[in-house]
């Protein structure tokens, strides 16, 4: 929430508005006095890394009464406040909407009581409201991600990862309760991100007789030499008869029936606390700026709106439509229409649920379709966190679709050396939480070894290829598809899933691994800021990875609150290197520099320049973050994104294999059969690699057009530059489409938090 508060304050001041803090939520608005204070630019510095909310929040009974709202209106009119930005859940936003609807009658009442004059009534005749949804449950319809959800997932996954090590040692079963009284999002996504054995959520109670099914699955897993079981329960979990399912009930059941050593862990308010994740900071900063723009453009006729992200795009949605839709979910659950509840939660939730089912429940061999196709999976390029989650997902979906799955070790190098072996369902157990690449990965390109690779494909009878990797994977796929005329072995469906920390793959806004790298960058910068908090003026130069692509530097800079970010895509000269004076006594300046932003203005050069020029004014330090950006356990976002996107790629392979199987063999040589699956704005799209060639700058290994450059002005405004903000990309008011009737099960568009 603090990142959102900071963005609203700074964007508000930037557009020339007067911005006020209202402390302690609606209670502060009712009580007035010192609770409503003007906010200055400096009031919000160094609060990006603080969890919770600096301006306080409180549940307020007074605001529910007419008298309370009258007092609140009086307090606002006294200060000429006519625009409200509310950050909260559906309760807070519904209250804000009611307040807006009553506004003119409240002003009339104040006028009659002689508390305000006619002129004040005219000046404050309209109240505009914009909402941002801050809720860790992610239970608000119309938004893909609410502020706080990603950070809560980080807390859960940290705990699960820690528990897994102890459970593994002792062969234990753990039952974890996570928050979510009415919404199972946290439980479902954390189950997906850690490969839990079973999950209980309020929207989809288990079928009667679930006790037998669950115990059978747990004992099968143990028989498969799996040393631990994880069961995740949302606090609102119920069975088909509305009876609640508690962690203790599950524990007793497992102990009674199976005799497994079982422990219960209730995470509780740990999930609300801690430092916000990089994703949440960026989401909140983008939303805060969007909220100010929405208020500036609001008129008496526009409905109160919420700003949110759908996919990778800012949108505005009518507040009450979202609230009604959210209430409909609860209604469907009360009426035991569980399928409808899941559908109303939105496409993202539906996809999470179907992917979880696909990956967690192993079918008996007799139930599997017999496809007789062999599919190979490999990693290419530098390691990226989340690659293993993608491979696990691809292998399991492939087996479910009836294929025989093969793993290729060490990229194209291992391919031509014949390091290929069959990989089974159980071989990828526990892979989601592992960093790096368990299959092994190399940067070698296939170009020089085409004949050997073709020979290996012939020996193992490989009918399709799934490549998870970075820029080398993309170039490798181009080389293989270009050699189809010469080698018939390459006339098979090939698809690539982007995985690189640099996020420099054409055809995709995001790639697996970049979110984990951003979190590594923000964590380090938080520590750097803390180290400088007691010292005199100091400038830090921080060098990030990314080759020529400035994504990590720009977005990392936005999340860490950098003052300047130097990147290759935006040329700069010596004048741009001047450190701007900061007024505050403890002045800390963060300069981010992408590793290849300029061949002469190196990190050392800038460091020496600042050390010389700043002598007696400030001292200078440099930090090269290096390979720590590639390491670490994958973030919940990367695990999830990798799992979903690889499952989708595998389903495409199955479809394409069926279409290209003729006369007893697979033959696929059209452009459409060598694809890259990427995230474009709101949807996941399959694009032929041959068509992406024109969009690529091969010399610098970056796409010619990059969406995140639109975030640059945002970063500069929040760091107090004189710059212009392009509003062409800001959200337009859209309406929610209820999924009640037309729930297309197989739509090819996923939303980002998929």
Automatic annotation (TrEMBL):
Which Pfam families does its entry note? PFK
Q: Which cofactor does it need?
A: Mg(2+)
Record GO terms (molecular function)? 6-phosphofructokinase activity; AMP binding; ATP binding; fructose-6-phosphate binding; identical protein binding; metal ion binding; monosaccharide binding
Q: Does the keyword ATP-binding apply?
A: yes
Pathways involved: Carbohydrate degradation; glycolysis; D-glyceraldehyde 3-phosphate and glycerone phosphate from D-glucose: step 3/4
Coarse class of the primary localization is cytoplasm
GO biological process terms, alphabetically, are:
canonical glycolysis; fructose 1,6-bisphosphate metabolic process; fructose 6-phosphate metabolic process
Stretches for region N-terminal catalytic PFK domain 1: 1-361
Q: What class of enzyme is it?
A: transferase
Highest taxon of source: Eukaryota
Q: Which residues bind Mg(2+)?
A: 90
Q: Which amino acid positions bind ATP, per UniProt?
A: 59-60, 89-92
Q: Please list where the region (C-terminal regulatory PFK domain 2) is annotated.
A: 374-754
Cell compartments where the protein resides: Cytoplasm
Q: What does this protein do?
A: Catalyzes the phosphorylation of D-fructose 6-phosphate to fructose 1,6-bisphosphate by ATP, the first committing step of glycolysis.
Spell out the protein name for this chain: ATP-dependent 6-phosphofructokinase
Source organism of this protein record: Oreochromis niloticus
């Amino acid at each position: 929430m603090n990142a959102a508060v900071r963005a609203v304050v700074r964007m508000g001041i930037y557009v020339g508005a007067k911005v006020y803090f209202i402390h302690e939520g609606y209670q502060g608005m009712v009580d007035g006095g010192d609770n409503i204070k003007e906010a200055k630019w400096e009031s919000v510095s160094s609060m990006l890394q603080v969890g919770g909310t600096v301006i306080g929040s409180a549940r307020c009974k007074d605001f529910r009464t007419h008298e309370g709202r009258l007092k609140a209106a009086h307090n606002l009119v006294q200060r000429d406040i006519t625009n409200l930005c509310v950050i909260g859940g559906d309760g807070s936003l519904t209250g804000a909407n009611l307040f807006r609807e009553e506004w003119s009658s409240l002003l009339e009442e104040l006028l009659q009581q002689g508390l305000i004059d006619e002129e004040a009534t005219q000046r404050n005749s309209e109240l505009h409201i914009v909402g941002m949804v801050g809720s860790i449950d992610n239970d608000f319809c119309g938004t893909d991600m609410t502020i706080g959800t990603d950070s809560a997932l980080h807390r859960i996954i940290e705990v699960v990862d820690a528990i897994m090590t102890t459970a593994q040692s002792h062969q234990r079963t753990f039952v974890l309760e996570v928050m979510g009284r009415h919404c199972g999002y946290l439980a479902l996504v954390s189950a997906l991100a850690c490969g839990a054995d079973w999950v209980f959520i309020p929207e989809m109670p288990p079928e009667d007789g679930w006790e037998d099914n669950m115990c059978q699955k747990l004992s099968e897993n143990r028989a498969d030499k799996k040393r631990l079981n994880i069961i995740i329960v949302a606090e609102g979990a119920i069975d088909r008869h509305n009876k609640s399912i508690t962690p203790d009930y599950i524990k007793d059941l497992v102990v009674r029936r199976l005799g497994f050593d079982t422990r219960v862990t209730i995470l509780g308010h740990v999930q609300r606390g801690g430092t916000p994740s990089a994703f949440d900071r960026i989401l909140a900063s983008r939303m805060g700026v969007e909220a100010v723009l929405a208020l500036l453009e609001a008129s008496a006729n526009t409905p109160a709106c919420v700003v949110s992200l759908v996919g990778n795009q800012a949108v505005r949605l009518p507040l009450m439509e979202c609230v009604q839709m959210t209430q409909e979910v609860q209604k469907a659950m009360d009426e035991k229409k569980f399928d409808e509840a899941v559908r109303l939660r939105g496409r993202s939730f539906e996809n999470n649920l179907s992917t979880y089912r696909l990956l967690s429940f192993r079918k008996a061999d007799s139930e599997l379709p017999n496809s007789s196709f062999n599919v190979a999976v490999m990693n290419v390029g530098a390691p990226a966190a989340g690659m293993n989650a993608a491979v696990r997902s691809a292998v399991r979906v492939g087996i479910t679709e009836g294929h025989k799955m093969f793993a290729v070790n060490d990229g194209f190098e291992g391919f031509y050396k014949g390091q290929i072996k069959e990989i089974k369902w159980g071989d990828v157990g526990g892979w989601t939480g592992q960093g790096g690449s368990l299959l092994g990965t190399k940067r070698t390109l296939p170009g020089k070894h085409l004949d050997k690779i073709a020979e290996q494909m012939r020996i193992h009878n490989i009918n399709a290829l799934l490549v998870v990797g970075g820029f080398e994977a993309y170039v490798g796929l181009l080389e293989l598809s270009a050699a189809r005329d010469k080698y018939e072995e390459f006339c098979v469906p090939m698809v690539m899933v982007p995985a690189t920390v640099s996020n420099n793959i054409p055809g995709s806004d995001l790639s697996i691994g970049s979110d984990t790298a951003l979190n590594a960058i923000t964590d380090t910068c938080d520590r750097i800021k803390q180290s400088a908090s007691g010292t005199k003026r100091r400038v830090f130069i921080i060098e990030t990875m990314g080759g020529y692509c400035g994504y990590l530097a720009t977005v990392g800079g936005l999340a860490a609150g950098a003052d300047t970010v130097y990147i290759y895509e935006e040329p700069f000269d010596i004048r741009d290197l001047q450190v701007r004076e900061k007024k505050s006594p403890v002045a800390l300046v963060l300069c981010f520099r992408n590793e290849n932003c300029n061949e002469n203005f190196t990190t050392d050069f800038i460091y020496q320049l600042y050390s010389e020029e700043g002598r007696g004014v400030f001292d200078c330090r440099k930090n090269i973050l290096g390979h720590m950006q590639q390491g670490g356990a994958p973030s919940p976002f990367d695990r999830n994104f990798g799992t979903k996107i690889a499952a989708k790629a595998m389903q495409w392979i199955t479809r394409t294999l069926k279409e290209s199987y003729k006369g007893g063999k697979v033959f696929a040589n059209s452009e459409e059969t060598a694809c890259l699956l990427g995230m474009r704005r709101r949807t996941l799209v399959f694009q032929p690699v041959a068509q992406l060639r024109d969009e690529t700058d091969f010399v610098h290994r970056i796409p010619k057009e990059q969406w995140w450059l639109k975030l640059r002005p945002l970063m500069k405004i929040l760091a107090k530059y004189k710059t212009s903000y392009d509003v062409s990309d800001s959200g337009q008011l859209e309406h929610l489409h209820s999924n009640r009737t037309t729930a297309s099960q197989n739509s090819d568009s996923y939303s980002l938090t998929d």
